[in-house]
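Q: Structure for this?
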Amino acid sequence: MSKQIMKSNSDRVFDIVNYSFLTIILIIVLYPLIFIISASFSHPSAVMSGRVWLFPVDFNLMGYKAVFRHKQVLTGYSNSLYYTIVGTTIQLAVTIMAAYPLSRKDKIFGKGVVMFFFTFTMLFGGGMIPNFLLVRALGLYNTRWALLIPGALGVWNMIITKTFFQSNIPDELYDAASIDGSGEIRTLFSIVLPLSGTIIAVNSLFYAVGKWNAYFNALLYLRDAKLFPLQIFLRNILVINQVDSSMIEDVRDIAERQGLTELLKYSLIIVASLPVMLAYPFVQKYFVKGVMVGSIKG
Amino acid sequence: MNKALGSKETAKSSQEVVEMKTKKNQRSAFAKSFIKGWPLYLLLIVPILHTIIFEYIPMGGLVLAFKEYDPVDGFKSGRWLGFSNFIVFFKSYNFVRIVRNTILINLYELIAGFPIPIILAISINEVRSKSFKKSVQLITYAPHFISTVILVSIVMQVLSIHTGIVNNVIKALGHTPINFMGDAKYFRHIFVWSGIWKNMGYSSIIYIAALTAIDPELYEAAKIDGASKLKRIFYIDIPGILPTAIVLLILQFGKMMKLGFEKVYLLQNDVNISASEVISTYSYKIGLVRGDFSFATAIGFFNSVINLVLIVVVNRIARKVGETSLW
């Protein structure tokens, strides 16, 4: 009797410790985000003097006004949208082109060899310089294609897509389609793809977030500022600290100018992560599904 | 076949015949499958060509590491250098420092970053309140989707010596503010812990999945035997997710030498360079900033080979010790 009470006591202690641990984790994750949001809506002088702790101080939109006055930010925004939409479409198409044939039973001769051919690239690669020289030799350097074509096939995405097709489209369906005289391509479009909404969503989201957030290829392959995606401008403003003076031209006072520069950074962080963060709560389950499908194959 | 059993020679030739037959069979098997399913092959051509061009040709490009590069003529002279690029790199003053930095950052990340998602997953798994569980998951997964550029700028804003919230706290407690970004000794901590902040939630998903796959009867039996929650974690949960953990550990090792050019490069500045210069950033600077493509390729090649060796070795160890492996 007393033993049982002791045990439930130890479990209760465990629960208390567990809930406090998770609460601390929540605070650690959330606090920097809340702080940045609040700072972005505060007055520059409040940000400079460190008076912002949790809520906006002297609420105002000066930072946001400065962000939207910036032409480069708008250029970057529209470029990034373009790269994300077109790039994701290309990646999705190439992924399905590889995953669909490889998912079919006894259809592709030497399937093991083809799979090895793809997966080996996950383990070994030419690296930065040979890739750069290739892109230059192909005439893609400093064109939009340089961000769209290299890396169009994500091998991990291809594997999860193949696994999904294999486990969700029964062989009987293929047999029935072929008896009805449907060719392989028509089967893909009229049977397989309509049944694969989940995996298409998963892949699109992974690819789209990847494209929206990417900056390395742009750093490597682009020289012309008109082509730059948002992340490159963000790096220039946020990390290297190159603030275009036109953004804060109407401020004469040096202290205020410095304050606005800081404030602008907070607002810019919010504006740049907005598309991803707004979509995130609604699409979170697809990312979780992607990881789950991926874990089947290990 | 029966006649051939007589002498060794005829046995050999019959073997050859069999080999030829299997080759022929293979060829006709391919032809058959191609005639039946040619649209599938047609689809497959695009990703195969793409992989040849953008993956295998650059691999071939690694020979540039052994060739002379001239800033004006490029690789036109075609003169072979042998291993001299590698020798120069191994002997250079930078070599030890760069390799040391690369290994230290990655080992630190591995040791600190590997157990935390597991602890988080077990902890989330023990939560009974569904809404609390859901909000913890939603919030901890979120930073994963922030771009590296934004992550680095958040780090810089939060740690800034003038306006950063961390230094505001330090000042409020009456201490002198610390210049986190301006001191090499903080670099590794900043790099690793910002990465953990970004990825711990997302990395825990796979362990949560593994935990839900554990047979609930095990818990029932343990409960009847009077095992406490802590005991159930140690004797059921941890063994249950061990195979997943080993596979992920292998994957992490495989990524060890290539991980994080973007983030290292962004966090790097003139002051912390002694701790933050790693193989990939060095190769970038030699190649694309200084223009010595040959030397830079050699550095990248060295990196890729170490990478490949690491993942093969770790996979073999895992297969022997834990009976799980990637292949």
